[in-house]
Write a structure and sequence with these properties.
The complex is a heterodimer.
Chain A (H helix, E strand, L loop, with lengths): L7 H18 L6 E4 L12 E7 L8 E7 L2 E7 L12 H10 L9 E2 L2 E2 L2 H11 L7 E6 L1 H5 L1 H11 L4 E6 L6 H11 L4 E4 L6 E5 L10 H10 L4 E6 L4 H5 L2 E4 L2 H16 L7 H7 L1 H16 L4 E5 L4 H13 L7 E7 L8 H10 L5 E5 L3 H4 L3 H10 L2 E6 L11 E4 L8 E6 L2 E5 L12 H8 L6 H12 L3 H4 L3 H11 L1 E3 L27 E7 L12 H4 L8 E2 L4 E3 L1 H7 L5 E7 L6 E8 L7 E6 L40 E12 L3 E2 L10 E2 L2 E2 L8 E3 L20 E6 L8 H10 L6 H5 L8 E9 L2 E9 L8 H5 L5 E3 L5 E3 L9 H5 L6 E2 L27 E2 L5 H13 L12 H5 L5 E5 L6 H6 L4 E2 L11 E4 L1 E3 L12
Parallel strand pairs in A: 7-8, 7-15, 10-11, 10-13, 11-12, 15-16, 16-17, 21-26, 23-25, 31-42, 32-41
Antiparallel strand pairs in A: 2-3, 3-4, 5-6, 5-17, 9-14, 18-19, 19-20, 21-27, 22-28, 24-25, 24-27, 29-30, 32-39, 33-34, 35-36, 37-38, 40-41
Helix pairs in contact in A: 2-22, 5-16, 6-12, 9-10, 9-11, 9-12, 10-11
Chain B lengths: L4 H24 L16 H7 L4 H4 L14 H8 L6 H14 L9 H9 L17 E4 L12 H6 L4 H5 L16 H10 L22
The chains are: A alpha/beta, B mainly alpha.
């Protein structure tokens, strides 16, 4: 190519001149810096502000600290001072942020299917109530609306305009039986406030209190802080709570009732309601074990707690009797301090349905619930609602119910609104806007106030309610404003609860537990999944791509079967089965199977919250490329609600369809002895180590016990505290701009989560045990990834971080191949960054990686720097605990400790020296900075030493 | 060796083709060299810093504490330009004219300051004008810093790095420009030499880790 007579040097000189001339001569349109003409007091571009508010991801009402930068919230963290959540925040809470940036949220109301102004909805209400006081009005909502003092007050004022009006509340799933049973046994129909932190012995019948039951973040915090000496879990499927139990008994829902009966008889000395022969023939071994536990329970009088997730008043009444006999009330159960997290009335939907069918309602207002989707008789509701003269739905999206409404009153996302909530009696929590709301939406309180004839903005409504009903001049000083400012700053206010007249326990009659006959065939157990909870965030891509902690399935509602049942049906993982109602074979749901060891053989368990019409939009999810296998144009997963009749169980036929749908799973092996490295069996070291109650362990030798070593950032994860709830996974995703990739990419092992939670299944003589292991970059001192990078894109920093430099990375993926822990991720695509609204949730402090580079956990290096700068600004050295990575922040169980391993007195170094500490793959001598604390299995024997520091 | 005219054409063809390619490509590379983009207001650092002796931090308030140095809001300008509405030369000329024409001195407002007032919705008499909407002033960015790196102004200011160490002798610029490209070589050079001292007099050791800037 080079012309004759030109040396290579001449050529380069000419070319170099050309470049220089061009760069000097060309200029592009300069980048603009837009400066606000007005000075804004406390905000500065790029500076973060934090606002205390209350989570609305489920009904639990955890405290949230929203990190706001440049006028928009970027990350939700647990509010450390909050009395319930104590700084923890679950996966659903982390993902709640993304809902704010959802382009499918309603930005304006709709009337008769067309976008409308808010006043047109008001006009529709006025037209529907033209008959004045004679109009028959019904309001149907979930608990959040009823647990908000302001919204409830305005709902009452709206309904008070009519002679025949009622507010009905229901929950999915319902806990109404707990409340009703307390009405029977204690004369106070309420869900009590449970105190797992005061319990030494916990027995749970089908209550997944660490995963989804009532207030999981609160209970996880309590449970982890003072781990009960004995935790017995009786359940049919494998729940998150079951993985932490010391003794886990497998029993179908019907068998659970009989085991409960046997336990109550053994503890209370009451005659058994179930014939003993029936129960013992059922599960003789389990019956014997649970009766043996009666002694432990009785010995822990006042420190024992029995909880039950079976939605049956008689069963719950027996649980109350049992707790009374164990002295739990006043100690581990606070009945005087009601939980308002579930206020649903079990009979409400049916009562309303009958009224609607009889034409007894002129105006129906539905708020927060979606009966067409979340009621078992959803199709009947669809038909019923289309016959209601006027249906107005207060919602934030066009769901199945809103699609049938005369008017849809668009509600503001609670992160942009003034609201309040009382999750537990006496605890008033505030919501404050973290960004400006859309112009044409209103909060439910604003809608109801407008319809009650007193339109006002939400701040006025909430302030007014608080001034009149929460503020106490005698206690809070003569002026309301300081009290309000303080409440806003804290996010909540605690008030003494008026003690009701002593509720005395009445055991007036022998409880007759209906003898449920032994069933043949399968029982469907529908359960709220850890990711989707009650389903209100069922179209959130972060949650849909969160692997289920037990099955590790994402983007699908897989029905789990025990290995025995799977053999019987001749199905394996991914085979489609048809679940159909026994009485009505035309009502069926097709779902893929996932085989779950440790599940009852006669149970098929399926998650709730899937199959929402709104998830149809994920048809094209994932990168578009020539080899893609797009999802079918269908909702994500299937809704199993139509199969249910009462409660969350139903008898079903299970039939193999002979079709397959490959599951999108992040972990395909169950046993840790099955792990293969390079085609060979893994080294004898096991990822998850167990410590039996009486066995000693050798201390980890990797941390020098004394003497100041150079700074080295490190992490210790206590596997015994970890429940596998996966909040850390989503906290990491929100913090570090990790994309969602869709099921097709996950099947190709291309998921992008920096932090994953592995789970290992062990078959032991005592039953199946599952342990969780959060897995992320170990920041090895002798990192195998570093030595193979040809461009030094991954190198070690002075403070012990394994750095990944995107600008240098050329994408050879050698590092990924050489990483023994498989924690590195590769950007195969420029992942979906075309959603301008969703991009507003990106964290500007972390690079958005482009195609062709490897990435992995940085130990939140940007947070380390921020903490360092903050310390320097204050003129003090960096203190232990100053740096909190996103994963550690959200962990309700406080299982993750982060700090300087070089400082022998730091919390992390002390934890790494504990006898339970170990590191992975010692034989490779990679010297990781991530240590684990082994799981403790007590197997029902006396309490093992957990506090072995 | 004799060469025909055709050969001369070939001889220049390849470099020319490459020149064209390079010109096209280079147009896509953001120029980091001394650029002086035109600004909506002809602000003179020379006048404000050298002649009037304003400190950098008077306008760039965040430079000492925050990640970004920050651009002043129009309200900051109004601290002085509420009273100073035109350059002194223009005012003197109007006074001279008025004296010669034997009339009252008219109010003179410079075009640049009129832009400042209009951005705040004010007319030339500084009264709110409802026909003018308040709008941000769209300054052109002068100093280009690559998006793949993160730097913190506050950390550098606290360490004693002077503004001019990176931004050059801004106080001499009539038209603001970036005299030198901010390259990684320049950052690393300074971090390696570590010639700054902390408040306690100890020599600072700036980080040389990649994640100090790239994350």
């Amino acid at each position: 190519m080079i012309p004759e007579g030109w040396s290579r040097r001449d050529f380069l000189r000419a070319a170099g001149f050309a470049v220089a001339a061009t760069v000097a001569g060309c200029s592009r349109e300069p980048e603009r810096v837009w400066v606000s003409p007005l000075r804004d007091g406390d905000t500065a571009p790029g500076r973060r502000a934090h606002y205390a508010t209350t989570c609305g991801g489920c009904s639990a009402g955890c405290g949230v600290l929203a990190s706001v930068r440049d006028g928009r919230p970027l990350k939700l963290e647990g509010l450390p001072e909050h009395p319930l959540s104590r700084g923890g925040l679950c996966a659903g809470g982390q993902a709640w942020l993304l809902g704010l940036y959802d382009e499918h949220r309603l930005r304006e109301p709709r009337v008769r299917g067309r976008p409308a102004a808010p006043q047109e909805v008001d006009a529709a209400i006025a037209a529907a109530t033209a008959a004045g006081r004679r109009t028959r009005v019904r309001l149907l909502s979930h608990s959040d609306l009823a647990a908000s003092p302001t919204t409830r007050a305005w709902a009452q004022r709206f309904l008070a305009r009519f002679d025949d009006a009622r507010h009905d509340v229901y929950d999915v799933p319902s806990l109404a039986a707990v409340s009703q049973s307390h009405g029977v046994t204690h004369g106070r129909a309420a869900i009590p406030h449970y105190r797992f932190d005061r319990a030494d012995v916990v027995v749970s019948f089908d209550a997944d209190f660490l995963g989804t039951w009532l207030s999981p973040v609160e209970f996880t915090g309590q449970y982890a802080a003072t781990r009960p000496a004995l935790h017995v879990q009786v359940e049919s499927r494998f729940s998150l709570t079951g993985t932490k139990a010391d003794v886990r008994l497998v029993a179908s829902p019907a068998e659970s009732r009989r085991l409960l009966d046997a336990l109550a008889a053994a503890v209370g000395g009451w005659p058994r309601s179930t014939p003993k022969a029936v129960a013992d023939a059922d599960r003789p071994a389990e019956a014997a074990r649970i009766v043996a536990l009666a002694g432990r329970l009785a010995a822990a009088r006042g420190r024992a707690l029995v909880v039950c997730g079976i939605d049956d008043v008689e069963v719950q009444a027996l649980v109350n009797d049992l707790n009374e006999a164990l002295g739990a009330y006043g100690r581990t159960i606070e009945l005087e301090r009601r939980s308002l997290q579930r206020l649903g009335d079990a009979d409400a939907p049916q009562r309303l349905a009958e009224e609607l069918d009889a034409g007894g309602c002129d105006l129906l207002v539905v708020a927060g619930v979606n009966p067409v989707y979340d009621r078992p008789d959803g199709t009947a509701w669809a038909e019923r609602l289309s016959r209601v003269p006027s249906l107005v739905v207060i919602t934030d999206r066009l769901d199945e119910t809103a699609a049938r409404a005369l008017a849809v009153a668009a509600s503001t996302h609670p992160l942009a609104a003034w609201e309040d909530q009382t999750p537990v009696e006496g605890l008033y929590c505030l919501r404050q806007p973290t960004t400006s709301p859309p112009a044409y939406t209103r909060t439910p309180a604003e809608w109801l106030a407008a319809w009650a004839g007193a339109p006002a903005d939400a701040l006025t409504l909430v302030r007014g309610q608080w001034r009149d009903h929460v503020y106490d001049p005698a206690r809070d000083g003569p002026s309301f404003d300081p009290f309000w400012t303080q409440a806003l700053r804290a996010g909540f206010v605690e008030r003494a609860v008026p003690v009701p007249e002593a509720s005395t326990h009445r055991r007036t009659h022998r409880r007759e537990l209906a003898v449920v006959p032994r069933e043949d065939g399968f029982t469907l157990v529908a359960y709220p999944s850890v990711a989707l909870q009650d389903g209100r965030q069922g179209d959130n891509p972060w949650l849909l791509e969160l692997p289920d902690p037990l099955t590790k399935v994402m983007w699908d509602s897989a029905a789990s079967l025990s290995p025995g049942a799977a053999r019987l049906l001749e199905v394996a993982d991914g085979d489609l089965v048809r679940l159909s109602m026994i009485e009505r074979p035309d009502v069926f749901v097709d779902v893929p199977v996932v085989v779950q060891p440790g599940q009852h053989d006669a149970i098929v368990a399926a998650p709730l919250g899937f199959g929402q019409a709104a998830t149809r939009r994920f048809t094209g999810v994932g990168p578009g490329w020539i080899g893609r296998r797009p999802r079918a144009d269908a909702p994500v997963g299937a809704n199993v609600m139509p199969l249910l009749t009462t409660g969350l169980t139903a008898r079903v036929h299970v039939r193999r369809l002979g079709l397959r749908r490959e599951l999108a799973r992040t972990q395909r092996h169950d046993s840790q002895h099955d792990v293969r490295l390079h085609g060979q069996h893994a080294p004898p070291e096991t990822p998850v180590r167990h410590v039996a109650a009486d066995s000693g362990t050798t201390p980890a030798a990797t941390v020098a016990p004394s003497g100041r070593q150079p700074l080295r950032w490190g992490m210790v994860i206590d596997l015994d505290a970890c429940t596998g709830c996966s909040a850390c996974v989503l906290a990491c995703q929100a913090e570090n701009n990790t994309p969602t990739v869709g099921p097709d990419e996950v099947r190709r092992h291309r998921e992008m989560h920096w932090l994953r939670v592995d789970r290992y299944v062990e078959e032991t003589p005592a039953g199946v045990e599952i342990a969780h292991q959060p897995m992320t970059c170990h920041h090895c001192a002798r990192a195998p990834c570093e030595s193979v990078c040809p461009v030094a894109a991954t190198v070690r920093s002075a403070d012990g971080l394994n750095q990944q430099i995107y600008a240098r990375c050329v994408g050879t993926r050698y590092c990924m191949n050489n990483c023994p822990l498989k924690v590195r991720r590769f950007n195969w695509f420029e992942h979906a960054r075309d959603d301008a609204l969703r991009n507003l949730a990106l964290n500007p402090d972390v690079t958005v990686r482009s195609r062709g580079v490897a990435e992995k956990c940085t130990f939140c290096a940007h947070r380390i720097q921020d903490a360092r700068l903050a310390a320097r600004r204050d003129g003090r050295p960096l203190a232990d605990g100053d740096v909190v990575p996103a994963c550690a922040q959200s962990c309700a169980a406080r299982a993750i400790t982060f700090g300087d391993l070089g400082d022998p007195d730091s919390r992390v170094a002390r934890a790494a020296r504990r006898p339970r500490a170990y590191t992975l793959l010692d034989s490779l001598d990679v010297q990781p900075a991530l240590h684990y604390l082994a799981v403790v299995r007590s197997d029902g024997r006396p309490a093992p030493e957990r506090d072995d520091a | 060796m004799p060469r025909g005219p055709a050969r001369i054409g070939v001889r220049w063809l390849a470099p020319l083709a490459i020149l064209v390619a390079v010109v096209t490509l280079a147009a896509a590379i953001p120029g980091g060299r001394a650029q002086a983009p035109s600004q909506p207001i002809a602000f003179s650092h020379r006048l404000h810093v050298s002649d009037l002796a304003l400190a950098c931090g008077y306008c760039h308030t965040l430079a000492a504490i925050d990640r970004r140095a920050g651009m002043p809001s129009a309200q900051t300008c109004m601290n002085c330009h509420r009273f100073v509405v035109a350059g002194s030369a223009a005012v003197r000329e109007e006074q001279w004219r008025a004296a010669r024409e034997d009339r009252r001195v008219r109010r003179v407002v410079s075009d640049d300051l009129a832009t400042l007032y209009r951005a705040q919705g004010l007319d030339d008499r500084l009264n709110p004008d409802p026909t003018l909407a308040s709008a941000p002033i769209a300054w052109a960015r002068v100093t280009q810093f690559p998006a793949l790196a993160y730097m913190h102004h506050g950390a550098h200011t606290r360490a004693g790095v002077a503004c001019r160490d990176c931004h050059g002798p801004v106080e001499r610029f009539e038209v603001t420009r970036a005299p030198r490209a901010l390259t990684m070589g320049m950052c690393v050079d300074c971090h390696r030499r570590g010639r700054y001292e902390g408040p306690d007099g100890a020599r600072l050791e700036p980080p040389l880790d990649c994640v100090a800037c790239h994350r």
